[in-house]
Amino acid sequence: MYIFHDLATFPCFTMTIIFIFQMLYVLPFCSSSAATFVFGDSLVDAGNNNFLFTFSKADSPPYGIDFKPSHGKPTGRFTNGRTISDIVGEALGGNSFPPPYLAPNVESNATHIGINYASGASGILDATGTLFIGRVPLSEQISNFEQSRRYIVKAMGEINAKRFLKKALFSVTIGSNDVINYFQPSIPFLSEKVSPTTFQDFLVSNMTMNLQRLHKLGARKFVVVGVGPLGCIPFIRAIRLISKGKCSIEVNTLIRNYNKKLKVELDRLNKDMGPKAIFIYANSYDVFREIILNHKQHGFENADGPCCGGNFPPFVCYKGKNANTSSVMCDDRGKYVFWDAYHPTEAANIIVAKKFLNGDASVISPINIRHLLHYVSY
Predict the structure, then answer these.
(1) 43 contacts: CB under 8 Å, gap ≥ 6
(2) pTM: predicted TM-score of the whole model, two decimal places
(3) Residues with active-site annotation
(4) Distance, C-alpha 184 to centroid of its chain
(5) Where are the alpha helices (DSSP H) in 52-111?
(6) What is the rounded CA–CA span in Å between residue 183 and residue 53?
(7) Interatomic CA distance for residues 81 and 87, integer angstroms
(8) Structure confidence by residue, pLDDT tens digits, 349-358
């Protein structure tokens, strides 16, 4: 074996070594876990709304009470611990979570961990969530990713940026607030309520346009999460006076029909784009519905009420300076399906995440997320 004692005498070798180190720095797609770019609403918001003037916030205790990286302090996640996207990212080998886009100094994360663009109260439609004032609609989230893409290109060049984005995962979890707003007449969401069919078609067409826009920006691996059974969440059950153990049939029927149309559209995109991209449909409706119906089999004791905030308006979950000023919180958070009136507990999120990671075609199709990680687009 020939040993180089003085690399300076071998300029070509030296330049090669420097080039390799530069490539390792700017090309993290060689690592075992892919970068993840998260889009959506409060189900996956990692703290973007902390930086907005909005009534949709989760920046005070007891939110985040079981989130170990923050030692139980709130991060802006709308649950007691990790979101589904957090749990999936960890299972795929991520050492840290994609930070919120609106937090300071997060640009560099775009080239290795990824970034979270999700915003509580946001929707597929720009008008969704106006009652909460500040929120980042899906179209604006994609505009924010466009800014991140410029950073990625600047860091590694256009060709390497395209390679990097082909391996990255793009998850989109949104639509719940659009549906909730549709059923809330107090919100000036639509001047005249359109039919459920027209509304579903409008959501699907807008979702498709946003997905196609992401594709033009370089995204190739998509996980699109359908809307869950909102007719069963404590908020809907309370405002529509649904009895214990029951769900709103009207709300859930609209959601099921929307999800069916969304899946058909994703199948069409898969057919049209062939191996150049893949769009996975994650069936959150059936997964959550099964958890609610068979909650005792999953170790839950309560599938109706929220752990924090109570069953009646204003559904506020917070911790004051003393017990007299704090909202009610359950003793065992692991026994509740719902954390507050809108969002699942970490315990429920873990079950859903595992289904998305390893489930069959009834849960996630055409392939599950573990298989998606190794999918090669052309």
Answers:
(1) 78, 83, 84, 118, 173, 176, 343, 344
(2) 0.90
(3) 42, 340, 343
(4) 24
(5) 84-91
(6) 25
(7) 10
(8) 999 999 999 9
